[in-house]
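Changelog-adjacent note: as of this version, every example in the card shows the full chain rather than a window. The one below runs 151 residues end to end.
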Amino acid sequence: MEKSRANSDHPYSKFYTGNKQTLDPTKKDLNLREELIKFWGTYYSASQMSLALVGPQPLNKLKKMVTDAFSEIPNNPKRSNIKPEEAWSKTIPFGSNVKSIIPGQGYVLEIVPVADLRSVTLTWPIIYSDERDKSNQSLIKPACTYHHFYL
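Full-length structure tokens:
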């Protein structure tokens, strides 16, 4: 439901889970291999990737392991100057005036569950007041904290 209420112009609304039947590319006359190659050619670039590594080895050994494993990833010149977080900075995922499948605010949704679970997960977007606030908040990772309430 959350992704259905997100702005359809924002990448957050684009990916859902599915199964073999719902993800069947032949239903949409798609050549999955061609689409994957097209996606790879457009978006795959070393400049768009980040890596976090934790290990008991000394730093120089960790660095060599990473260099050996990842140094051949190409850098796409079309993407090298684009920061992923800035590409969508002007398109907000939620709000009262966004395009979405299900209106995001001012509506009550009645949902019939598909499983007998008694839990509620609450999530909300975090809006930073400025770059310093964003930097400070990234140290405590508030977006990575999940609270589950069991009824």
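Structural remarks: The first strand starts at residue 119 and ends at 121.
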